Structure prediction request, 228 residues.
Amino acid sequence: SQKIEQNSEALNIQEGKTATLTCNYTNYSPAYLQWYRQDPGRGPVFLLLIRENEKEKRKERLKVTFDTTLKQSLFHITASQPADSATYLCALSGGYNKLIFGAGTRLAVHP
Amino acid sequence: EAGVTQFPSHSVIEKGQTVTLRCDPISGHDNLYWYRRVMGKEIKFLLHFVKESKQDESGMPNNRFLAERTGGTYSTLKVQPAELEDSGVYFCASSHGTSVYPTDTQYFGPGTRLTVL
Prediction:
């Protein structure tokens, strides 16, 4: 069955450093891979979408890579700030239909 | 532009009772999705409407769950009768894309936290 793995343990980093989160998947060939941010008590907020034919996407301090051979995506936050502390979710889809989510990785940025 | 809204934000009911959750998507979004997150698990897909039609309901757990989207605007998700394992957070999302021009960004509401006692 389809499976998405994200680091289950929280990632703790110092303010100003680059945070790197990993998303690995198996038994799936997604057309799109997306990253969402979720804060406690709130719904997921869309951050970035990358298509299967794209290797890298950037938006301000965020960067996503997508390696369909390794079946892996890396999500980077450069110059991290305490306000970046949240849970980050990886989600895959084949089109405009359902998203398949990973369990998420909790990021804590310390001053 | 208003985002996706959900009502209520919290609901606490007894086992065997009925609960109806409501979702108002972003205006103009034909696609509406329901997802659920139970304690300690990942968010899981329940179903997908395109306008008023059910496009994919493969994630619905059983026939105690009934989703409707009359008129292709807001949607309701009814659980009848509720069981303990139905507790969790129910999210609604909407998107603009079509099968011909897929725009896969889904915008999520804040969720409804359902507790079944």
